[in-house]
Amino acid sequence: MGNRDAGRLEQTICDYLAWMETEGYAPGSRRAYKQVLSHFVRYIKDRKVVWTEALSAETLTRFKKARGLTYAPAVRGLSRYLSKQGEISQPIPNRKAQAKLPDPYEHYLIYHRRSHQAPLRKVNHIRRVLTAFHHYLQRFNIDLCHLRIEHLDGFLAEFLAPFSQTTKRTYRSYLRGFLRYLYYESHIVQRNLAPLVVGAPLFDRAQPAKFLRPHEVEKLFASLKLSSASDLRTYAIVHLAYFLGLRAAEISTITLDDISFRKGKLSLRDRKSNNPVILPLPEPALKAIVAYLIGGRARSTSRRLFLNLCAPYGPISSGSVGYAIRAWMKRTGLAATPYWLRHTYAQNLLEAGASIYEIKEMLGHDSIESARAYLHIHTSLMRKVLFDESL
Fold first, then answer.
1. Exposed, middle or buried, 6 (CB in 10 Å: 0-12/13-18/19+)?
2. Residue 39 to residue 45: CA distance in whole angstroms
3. What is 3-93's CATH topology?
4. 26, 46, 7: which is closest to 373 by C-alpha?
5. What is the pLDDT of residues 33-74, one digit of tens each?
C-alpha cells in the first residue's frame, strides 16, 4: 500500500471513530475498535495491501489469523461504514452469520420471534451471537446436551472481549434466552444454566444522559459566527441538532427535497429506526438553513443539503457533521459532545410537557425504553420543588 492509500485508510478510520462517537457508541467500544483498527492499519501497511483489497473477506481472514483473533467486528463495522459512504462497493460479507444453524438454534430463533414479537433486526443480532456460540462449541467438540458452566464462561470470555459493558450485557441476555429455551422448551439440557450467565458486578457505573444547561445553550449560540461558508454551515447544523435533536447521520443525509420552506416542515426518510417522519421545522432552524443556502453552500448538482467546503463539493459525511459541532463546542469552551444537543432536545421536550411516547417518536427510537434512557430526571422540576429555584 502506497503512502497515499495508507493515508486514505487512516483518515477513513478517524472519520469512522468520529462517527461512532456522534452515534452514541460507548467509550469502551470506541477504544476497543480503535485498538483493533490500529493493528489493522499496521498489517495493511506491512503487507502492502492495495486499497481495493484492504477491506475484503480474504484480507480480514488473513489479518485475524496473523493477530490470533476469532472475531473482528471493528473491521467489519469499518467496511459497512465505508460502503454507506460510497468509498467501497460493498461491505465485507458475513457469510457465517447468514449460514443456516443446526435445528435447536433455528427453532429457538423462530420461537423467540413469535413469542416475543421481536423485529427481524433483533433476531439477526441474536443469530450472530448464537452463530459464534455454535462455532465455539464445534471447535471443542462440545454437544449442547453436555453444556456446563465452564463452557459458557470460556465462550463469553473470548467472544465478549472487544465489546463495551453495555454490549456485553445485551449479548449475555441473548445467550440466557437461548439457555432457558434449551431447558424449558426443548429439554435438551438437564439444568437451567441461564441464571449462571452473569457479568462482573459494576458499581456506580450508571450515568444519566448529559445535556446543556440554559446558560450553556445561550453561550453556544451567542458564539456562532456567520462570517464564512464554514461558519454558516456549522450554524445550520447546530440549529438542526438542537431544535430537532437530529443525529449526525440524519443531518448528513438531508436533501433539498426533504425541506418544505413554505410549510416549515422537514421530511426524514432515512432514520436509524427505519421509521420515516415529518417534523416541524422551527423558524430559527429554517432561517439558519436559508442563510447557509444563500451565503455558504457551493453550487453543485448534488441534492444533499450540506456539502463539503472544497471541490468537488460532494455530500458531507456524518463524521464531518459531528466534527463541526464538536469543534465549535470546544472553541466556545464547552466540555461537551455533539450528542449533548440531542439529550438537551429530549430534556426540553420533557419540560414542555411532552409524553414519553411523543419523545420516543420525535427522537426516532424503536422502543419506549430507548427514549427513557434520555430522561433520567426532570431537572428543573426537581430543583424548583427541593430548592425553590430553577436552572
1. middle
2. 10
3. DNA polymerase; domain 1 (1.10.150)
4. 26
5. 999 999 999 999 888 888 888 888 889 989 988 888 877 889
